[in-house]
Specification:
two-stranded parallel sheet, 4 helices, single chain, mainly alpha
């Protein structure tokens, strides 16, 4: 949770979070159709709002919550990989 000093600094650096209306205007100006979960949580925390109500408000304005795409490490190999034992205990000395 942000204390008063951190909140003020954050709002100076990110003026689009000053109010919910300014955030909505920011989305319109940026021609975005989605908002991120991180933005939703940040906006709700800064203004002490309920996440569900804020999401409903943003969706009521025509925006939708951005789909989360899980990141997958590039070094995952299948069980038939030739080098499957090379990284069996990766990071263990």
């Amino acid at each position: 949770m942000l204390n008063k000093n951190n909140r003020e600094k954050f709002l100076r650096e990110n003026p689009e979070f000053e109010t919910v209306e300014e955030y909505i205007q920011y989305l319109h100006d940026d021609e975005r159709t989605e908002f991120s979960g991180l933005d939703l949580i940040t906006l709700a925390e800064i203004h002490n709002l309920n996440h569900k109500e804020l999401r409903a408000q943003l969706e009521g304005e025509g925006f939708k919550l951005q789909e989360r795409r899980p990141k997958r490490p590039n070094d995952i190999r299948g069980f038939k990989s030739e080098e499957r034992t090379e990284k069996l205990f990766a990071g263990v000395e």
